[in-house]
Amino acid sequence: MSMLMLAVDLDAYIPIGLLVVMAIVFAAANLLMSHVMGPRREGPIKGSTYESGMDPIGSARKRFNVRFYILAMTFLVFDVEIIFLYPWAVTFAKLAPQSDEAALFLGRIMFFIATSIIAYVYAWRKGVFRWD
Amino acid sequence: MADKLWFLIPEIWLFVGVVVVSVMGLSRRKMFRDLLPLVVCVFLVGAFIITPLLYSEQRISAAGLLMPMLGKYVKMLVCAIGVILTMLSVGLIDRDLEASMSAGRTRFDPIRVNRGEYFSFFMLSIIGVMLVCNANDLIWLFLALELTSLPTYIMVAISRPSRKAQEAAVKYFFLGAMSAAMFLYGFALLYGATGEIELTKLRDVFAAQAAAGGLNRVAIVGLILTVMGISFKMAVVPMHFYAADVYEGAASPVTAFLAFVPKTAGAVALILILSTVGWSGHYGNGAHGLPREILTALWIMAVLTMTLGNIGALLQRSAKRMLAYSSIAHSGYILIGLIAGPPHGLNAVLFYLLAYGVMNTAAFAVLASFERKGEEIESLADLAGLRHRYPVMAVAMALAAGSLIGFPPLLGFAGKLYLFIAGVDAGHIALIVIAGVNSAISAFYYLWLVGLPILAQSTPQSETVVARPVVWPRVAAIVTAIGVVILPLFAQSLLKASQAVTVERETTALDVTVAPDQPEQPTSP
Hints:
The complex is a heterodimer of chains A (132) and B (525). Chain A has 132 residues and is mostly helical. Helix content of chain A is 67%, strand content 0%. Chain A has 4 helices and no strands. The longest helix of chain A has 28 residues, at 67-94. Chain A is flat, with a radius of gyration of 26 Å. Chain B is mainly α and 525 residues long. Chain B has one domain (2-517). Chain B has 23 helices and 3 strands. Chain B has helices spanning 2-5, 9-24, 30-54, 57-63, 70-89, 95-102, 115-134, 138-158, 163-194, 199-211, 217-234, 241-249, 252-277, 292-314, 319-340, 344-368, 386-389, 391-405, 411-425, 429-454, 460-463, 472-486, 491-514; strands at residues 370-372, 375-376, 466-467. In chain B, strands 2-1-3 form a 3-stranded antiparallel sheet. In chain B, 58% of the residues are buried. The A-B interface holds A 1-3, 5-6, 8-9, 12-13, 115, 118, 121-122, 125-127 and B 19, 22-23, 26, 109-111, 192-193, 195, 209, 212-218, 523-525.
């Protein structure tokens, strides 16, 4: 019985298996086709690093100030906040105006926004934006 | 969903505390920074008071949790011990920095102070344990367990300004990440084998599978991986390697925290996970319904944990390492209760968590109360002849160690007694005999902790040990030592409080026994 169950369970993985196969085939086919069919023009400028249109200066393997890392973390605070604000906004528009439920929804998101504002104040106080 | 949110009010309250504390820690005024432990205590006491008010019959039945009453007991326990642990941490963080700022040698610089962060992480970790109790699905359980552990990595690193602490934190972090990966893989397999992530539904599917001839093989592998991963939090062999180094590297107050909070989270998580496969006798093979594979694994882990923990402790000359190994051994005793199962085993586990929390914190509190030239004491020899200069602390250490042995009439005796009775009741005589032998071995090294402070003469080395300037660790040691003596008198009522957890479970267990009789339950998606 347990062997049978194992078989049944593995059946459930067939879609995942198919997905994996499709992903591999798609990637391989694209690489192969562009290799076979694509035009090829090579040169020193073509081979240089693409930096959003700027001429690349110096090596990319240099040390960055650790502040960028803290700044990136601060950015994440707002990034995550927006992820939650989107579904909230979509749902909130559908609630009956002036209803208790809407007030509860508003209260919850306000609490959430307050926490991220405090996170921002904390980072500010900690000196993240001081760029001496 | 909304019914369950009621039970989260203590966690939300503590989270507000986290926010307050982290901002207060950056205050320019020294007074505010020194008030932090008091604020933490206020929030913890608040959560302690709020928790029992929330558990009305109506909300419990509406919440649909696997063991709804678990939260009440564990949350109150963790908050109470949390207050003691806060006392231990007074004046620990930023000690040199604060001193030099008071003397005017250094200017206040927000980026260099860590005290607010320390207490924030402290409370976040406690929130993690509280969330574990409320877990009703695997994802919640995973997140709650990680919320318990992640802050502790940082707490270890900032607990004292030494390389040892940072080394300990890195070891702890990497091994912790490995254990998280392990039980996450286990959870994935459990989901694969049942198609459910909700614990109550998992239980029903497992009951149906067991009635139909045995658990799915994939589910067994998943359960074993889960149990192994979670046992890291409890420092159970074979996931105990980190314990000695990490406990030694962290400052004593943080070690006391590590020995109690993640361990409680692990024990509660194991109770929840094992409840889904159930202990009740309708799984065939024998009186104990834990699947044979799981039962064997737990049995071996319990024996190895007790034995290796106690033998490891025998070999130590550092009091902190000794207590680290002793905490491994105590996890082994806790596993006995998990093997015995409800009602008595689980009651005994919950009661033992309380007993262990009090007596172990008492021992660490004594260590945290002393220092030599600003460095905390570690070796056993430092405790020699403590009674000449600090008689109260010497007695506190002796009481804590006596209770850790399980010496009647102290608290540890009551705890072990209930565990062993539960084990015998469940028919695991061999396991209890091994546990008894281990208790005898443990007496040998715990008696050092009794004898050195009380009986031995001071040495030139131990003469240089002085009490820390802050009084709170000593207060914590005295409070917990009194608890070790007084609490056994209330053992009956405390045990009754822990029994409320399994009373609730027995009513839910009834559904499980009914489930196989119902017409055709789907076993897989």
